[in-house]
Amino acid sequence: MPPDSSSSGEQVFSVTVPASSANVGCAFDCAAIALSLYLRASATPKKSGFEITYRGANADQIPRDANNLIVRAMQSAAAATGVALPSVRLDVQNEIPLGVGLGSSAAAIVAGILLGNELCHGKLAPAEVLRLAVEIEGHPDNVAAALHGGFVVAAKHEDRPDVLVAKADVSEKLDFVAVIPEVPLPTEKARAVLPAQYPRRDVVANLQRTALLTASFFSGGELSPELFRDTLHQPYRSPLVPGIAECLAFRHAGLAGVFLSGAGSAVMAVARHSAAEIGDALVREFRRMGTGARALVLKADNRGAQISSADLPASEAARPRFTSQK
Q: DSSP letter at 10?
């Protein structure tokens, strides 16, 4: 979308991208759900260099230079459009904690690609945005949910760089309780504990539940904790943070399901009712095992990433609005 020079000196582009919870128990590396926790970023062209302001979760871990993941994704989008990325002022406000399995990197990647596409006047289709995001992230589930919203199943195409994806809206009647321990769990560490091979019975058990779980989300069918049961990754990752195993074994009349969010360390509970009560109980399970935790009650986000633009008056465009903060 080219800037409208008739009413402004510059045009500011803004994007909002939801968090996401991948794997959904049995759907290992297959599915994710977008959630009502957000990364918001605004980019305004400037004369030279990058200025980055960041406010929000894990501020001390966020680069304020070209190593910033949003900037790297913007550069990827620029390369795809064949247009040089202009210098920008980038303002980021992030609610998504890092390193706990809530899709913070996926949100940053999708935000950067969408902003880069707009800044370069590109015309990347959603499928191209998703393909670029998967190239950076390495797997499709989180980025597909962040881009499209809802419950998403995704797979890389075997013969092409395309991504196969299907989305279902998630019922507003369901609450998603993210229970976040004070101990982060890097994806690399969580991947390293997984075995190289699995017994056939474990793979079949997950395939059966993944098919049933997906059918339930797409049809609006009844969910139950048994549908989320996993044999491929949760048993191996649970010992990494005390309290995860106890949370996965927890049951409550209002509980529709519970699973490790992404690679962890957060645990996600799906609640038909009594969400706050379930969250408090799961926090107690972590604390009982010596791990501090907090609970957030969220909804599914069925909209996915949203981008908008607004003219910036020339008087505003002429002076810096953001400065690097550490």
A: E
